[in-house]
Every structure is written in C-alpha cells, then in structure tokens.
Design a protein that fits this description.
Blueprint (H helix, E strand, L loop, with lengths): L3 E3 H8 L3 H9 L5 E4 L2 E8 H13 L3 H9 L11 E4 L2 E4 L2 E2 H4 L5 H9 L20 H14 L8 H18 L9 H8 L4 H13 L7 H11 L4 H12 L7 H15 L1 H10 L17 H7 L6 H14 L5 H12 L5 H24 L17
Antiparallel strand pairs: 1-3, 2-3, 4-5, 5-6
Length: 381
C-alpha cells in the first residue's frame, strides 16, 4: 500500500461521498496533505483510510468489535506508553528509532516508566552469572516472583524498584557480567564483544524495549491486573515470548538463512512456503512498508552475503521487507554472538516495556477479564 492516496482513490476505498471524506478529515480521522505535483489537489493518508474501511465493513456489532480486537483489530487497552503511528514506533511521544541512536536501555526505562530518578540495572550478586541461559532466566524470575510482594496498592516508585531488580536478575541470567555499568556493556563483556559491538547491542535493546500491546505485553498486563508481583508479570511475558511467532522468530530467521546457504535461497524459500509457514524475519502487519526497528539497526553494520541474498530473494518472491527479527539474526551472525542471542536481546529489552505496562495496569485498577463466545453443546433438561 502506498502511503498517500488521491481523492478518487480514497473515495473508492471508503465507498463514501466527498462530503463524508471531508468530514473525516475535519475530525482528524484521516490525515491530508497537498499533492506535491498539483497543490490544488489533496492526498489522503492510506493507513487512516484502511483503518476506517475495516471499521465500516465490520459494522457496529459489539461481538464483532470484541472479536476483531484480539487479532490486529481495534485498540483494546488505553495506554500512554507506546504506539505505532503511520509506520513509526513511538515511545511516550518520542520516535524509538531516533531515541535508539544515543539512549541506553536504562534511559529508555526512565522514559517509559516516567521515573523521577535514574534507573539502574546494576547486578545484584556476582554469583548470579555462574550459569547463564534461558532456563536460568526462568528460574531467576520464578524465584523473584515467589518472593515478591503483590503489586496492588503499592506506589509506582516501589513498583519501578521491583521492575529494576527483576530486570537486573534477568540480565545476569542471560549473560551480562557483574558490575554497575550500563547493561549493554555488561552483556557485551559476557559475549566477548568490542565497543562497537556493544553499541549495536545498546541500540537493539532500546528498539526492543516496547511495542504496544503485543502478545507478551498483553500477558504481562493480564498478570498485573490480578495484582501479581512485578516479577511474576515479567515471567508471564517471558513465557509468552518463547513462541516461534514472537521472540523465537530471530532464531527461526537464522535457521532460514542457513537453509538458504545450504540449499540456495529460492529452494529454501520454496520449502518454507510449501508448508504454509510465515517467513521468519520478514513482513509485519503494522509495518507494510518496512519495520523501522529493523531499518534503524541494519544501518549500522554490514550484513553478510547469506543474509543479503536471502533478503533479495524474499523481496523478489513475496515483496516482504525485513523486520526486526531479521536484523537480530543478522546482528547475531555479524558479531558471532551465541545462537540464543536474538531471544536474549528481545527478552532483556522487552522486560522494560513489560514493567511499564504492568505498572500502568496496576495503577489503572482495571481487571482484564474478557468473555468467550461458547460454541459447544448445551445440556437440555
């Protein structure tokens, strides 16, 4: 989809009269700009029109609205933390890609948590890095969750401290070395990466810090709505992140490029597509013109020949652009990081967002309890 449509295209997409189109513009529901080729004419923002067309097609049925909200539908939760707007990821009014050029994960946490004091993820104990990996991360968060206080009724500053402690424990269990330096530097030391590589890790963590109401964030908010400890909310998010359609997509993208190197890009793609599997590392529902997180990260290092050939083959075969999972796979190969690095970077970065959403959910004091539409048998007396 192109970003801007002509008046005629907009009317055809919406199937409305010109007066209705102008009313949508005046109410701020459709963005408009002068046509550069002819200033007397106007252009209309395509994604605004697509959203309106979807809502009009669905109608006003409460059941249809509720069901559509679950899968890329209407916003279902009010938040001030982040959003995707016109193809850009926004953190509390700031463009995430721009922020990632200089910010650390700690500074990003301060922004997303609206913290009154600087955030630190300094390691709690030196012994916590004797073992590192995903199983250890689950064990550490489980221990924190079992010992944690209920989040209900507690002040945001206290909840932020809980989030910082849980994120610190997660960082060390994922390979960050002990110390008080920014967490990306400690993680780089644990992975034997130089200063340039450490800066790429920093940028990746910031870009992964939040992404609106994705599956793992929704799981964290559901846990928070029950009053669970902040560490338990992070544990819910971490469990959800393990799926191949979420945090596991980076590892799957590495597997895809390895298949492409062994079989040839076209043959590897044919095999993946033959099984009706989504291509890991490519495409995103919220970014039809390309994932700005992947674009921002890929600007700062050279991808290898295997990743480059795969990107070209996928674009030619499907028109799909690389997303952040592709960028994480490329970064892992470029820096020779551990195979689990895409997931570890995702989990550590996103723990900041999980904490922000858990705090926002707790302070809203609103339960999350949707209803199911039953289609099973009914007992008749």
């Amino acid at each position: 989809m192109t970003e801007w449509l002509t008046r005629e295209e907009a009317l055809a997409r919406l199937n409305v009269r010109p007066q209705t189109l102008y009313a949508y513009v005046s109410r701020g529901r459709i963005g408009m700009r002068p046509d550069a080729a002819d200033p007397r004419r106007s252009q209309y923002r395509a994604d605004d029109i697509a959203g309106l067309a979807t809502r009009r097609a669905r109608g006003r049925s409460p059941q249809a609205i509720a069901e559509s909200a679950i899968a890329w539908g209407e916003p279902a939760v009010t938040t001030a933390i982040s959003t995707v707007l016109h193809g850009r990821l926004i953190y509390r009014g700031k463009d995430a890609a721009t922020l990632s050029a200089t910010a650390t994960l700690e500074q990003t946490a301060g922004l997303l948590w609206t913290s009154a004091t600087p955030v630190s993820f300094a390691s709690l104990t030196a012994s916590s890095v004797r073992q590192a990996g995903t199983p250890t991360a689950f064990a550490r968060l489980s221990a924190f969750a079992a010992e944690g206080w209920s989040s209900l009724g507690r002040q945001p500053a206290m909840l932020q401290q809980d989030g910082a402690s849980a994120t610190s424990a997660l960082a060390t269990s994922l390979g960050a070395m002990p110390g008080s330096e920014p967490v990306h530097e400690r993680l780089a030391r644990g992975w034997s990466v130089d200063a340039a590589g450490a800066d790429l890790i920093r940028k990746a963590l910031v870009l992964l810090a939040d992404h609106e109401l994705n599956a793992s964030t929704f799981a964290a908010r559901v846990a928070a709505s029950t009053g669970a400890p902040i560490a338990a909310c992070l544990l819910a998010g971490l469990a959800t992140l393990t799926g191949p359609r979420h945090g596991g997509a980076g590892a799957a993208a590495i597997a895809l490029v390895e298949d492409a190197e062994r079989l040839g890009a076209n043959e590897a793609l044919a095999r993946w597509l033959a099984h009706d599997r989504p291509l890991p590392g490519f495409g995103h529902q919220l970014y039809p013109d390309g994932d700005p997180r992947g674009e921002a990260l890929l600007l700062d290092f050279e991808i290898d020949d295997g990743m480059s050939r795969l990107r070209e083959a996928v674009l030619a075969a499907t028109g799909l652009h690389p997303n952040v999972d592709f960028a994480l796979a490329a970064l892992t190969r470029a820096l020779r990081l551990p195979a689990a690095a895409p997931f570890h970077l995702f989990a550590l970065g996103r723990s900041v967002g999980w904490t922000a959403h858990a705090i926002e959910q707790v302070t809203s004091n609103m339960p999350i309890r949707p209803r199911a539409r039953y289609e099973g048998p009914l007992r008749r007396e």
